[in-house]
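Re: weekly structure request thread

Next one in the queue (260 aa):
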Amino acid sequence: MPDVQSASDPRNVAIDRVGVKDVTYPIRLREREGGEQSTVATINMYVSLPHHQKGTHMSRFLEVLNDQTRGPLRPDAIVKVAKGIQEKLHAEEAHFEATFTYFMRKKAPATGMPGLMDYRVTFECVANHRDDFVLTVSAPATSLCPCSKEISRYGAHNQRCRIEAKVRFTGVLWIEDLVELLERSASSPVYAVLKRPDEKYVTEKAFENPKFVEDIVRDLALELNGDDRITWYCINSENFESIHNHNAFAQITRDKRPGR
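Done, posted below.
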């Protein structure tokens, strides 16, 4: 049958990324404490397309994914999938992204009541002349405004925030490790289950630890600067303001690799 995708294209325009998006696929992950959990990932796969080629072969992305995994995707297969896509489609560069919900059992701070917290996680891999892997984790938390605390006669306004870290790293970095760093940078973590003693604890902890959005990203940057596993990071916090009709946002990007 004619291979239309491999035909030449006269427009002489290269494409940075072309491929398939929103592929639903199972993923299985090891937990830091020794267990495993299964969840569902949304996967995007792309290649770069040279100026002379009319199109890419979309079915081959799924062929590689299924051939390399033969079941639920595991993190250690991601680089192999990206390399397999690059080789199968004869591409200069291939991109692989898997975004999923990761669950952690978390006890309430005062009563110890257990609950499952959900965190958004993304694995990204680029295969070209070298393999590049980036882990992204976002966590909800609480921030309490230092200015409001300083100027108000009664209490201070607080709000939920979403803190996100994209990191490159060496060695082993668990999702749980990054979640803990994110939550430590906030005024207080949030929890799935809170009884009244827990609510009192969380409210008072946030009041005693007020932070602007700038404080959150600076404190997180210090944590990541002190972790030798982290070689590069891009971090941000978005605070969902409770007394304004807008959100507050701050971001820091740093490359810790020598000479960068």
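The chain has two domains: 6-99, 130-260. The mean pLDDT is 94.
Next request, please.
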